[in-house]
Amino acid sequence: MNPKALPQNIINCMSDSDRRDIGVKTDVERESAIDKKNEDELQKKIEAYCCLLGFEKLTEENIRRAERDSNFPSHGWQYHLSKLGTKKNYVLPDVTLFSRTGEYLWLELKTKTGKVREMQELLINAGHWKLARGEEEAVQVIRQWVGLKN
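Predicted structure:
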């Protein structure tokens, strides 16, 4: 029998190890995997948008370029956690933007259904981070921070 043909109510009752052994997921596990993929895509889009606005990626090459060119970067710097290998650190936001004047924006990106972890919620509620659910919200938060009209 094909394990993927099992009814979902049976799969939902199975142990984690049994589900892993036969390669099936609960509804929640499937939705979580889809949400994770969508959040990764969202982060890539926002990173590209920040580059368009003049927030350059904080790389060795770009730092050396800034040393030679006082107008680079035009708006500031950005870094993205997945590039730094700290994706499991929930007390650092997904994206950080630094302006040329030293201001910063800490932005946590989530899909419409993405789960905000407890530490993230504390930092958002304390006003240290901004939360954006989806691409439109993220663009709006960034534009407002930069001082652009929406």
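Summary: The chain has one domain: 38-146.
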